[in-house]
Amino acid sequence: MIVIQDLLAVGSGALVGFVLGLIGGGGSILAVPLLVYVVGVSSPHVAIGTSAVAVAISALVNLVGHARAGHVKWRCALVFAAAGSAGAALGSTFGKQFDGERLLVLFGVLMIVIASLMFFKGSDASNGDVRLTRDSAPKLMPLLLAYGVSVGALAGFFGIGGGFLVVPGIVAATGMPLIFAIGSSLVSVFSFGLTTAGNYALSGFIDWTLVAWFVGGGAVGGFGGQMLATRLAGKKKALSNIFAVIVALVGAYVVWRGLR
User: Fold this and answer.
1) How far is CA 165 from the centre of its chain?
2) What CA–CA distance (Å, rounded) separates 149 from 153?
């Protein structure tokens, strides 16, 4: 049974890494349901803590690839991540105090809501030259800080990387193209995940063996996701819509299981 659980952790990690590499976010929202319902982690809090570590490391691996391709707006990304980390610390503190089963139900509801937003969101932005400078700071800084804190708090509370929220948040705050938002979002996914993981580690809510298997699968899956993202760059809207449907279905299943 231990061997089977390890293999399931590798496969689940590969799926999460693949989605992170492909669209920059969304893979993390699948990590907790995969750990609970596929790998068989009995405690929702342990699943959240374990997924936070695994997603943070997977995001870092994917960030390296996107940075090499020049897809990261570092100043905007770092400000967003810093603000979000403060929100993640606060959100994860509240999350640990919340009943695990109720947390899963709320998690499922959040998945359905976000899937709807992903499916009906507008077209990609086109301001590829956007940068955080002394001149643009009065306009960009308040938006980056506001979106960062809000997204970080949700990410910390539910124990997710938050990339599926960071990508539209960065686009809304800066107007940068989707490909840059995807690369830049991974800075926040890493930061949020690390902050949440540290908080959960203090309470012993992390299975480090599962982390190792999950991250191993995530590294392989992430490489494949980045390769496919490069080839299908012009079809990201269709891919996002397909993924939104998958997230909604998984969210509905999580809610159903939680209510049972």
Assistant:
1) 8
2) 6
> Could you read off the pLDDT of 140-186 as tens digits, one per residue?
999 999 999 988 888 778 766 666 678 778 888 888 877 788 889 88
Count of domains in the chain?
1
140 and 174 Cβ atoms separated by less than 8 Å: yes
Domain of residue 30, residue span: 2-259
CB atoms within 10 A of CB 127: 12
* Structure tokens given for 112: 């359905």
How many other C-beta atoms lie within 10 A of the C-beta of residue 228?
Answer: 14
Task: Check residue 123 and report its DSSP letter.
Answer: P
Total residue length of the chain: 260
Tens of pLDDT, residues 73-121: 999 999 999 998 888 888 888 877 777 677 778 877 877 887 787 677 6
Asked if residues 165 and 24 have their Cβ atoms less than 8 Å apart, the reply is: no
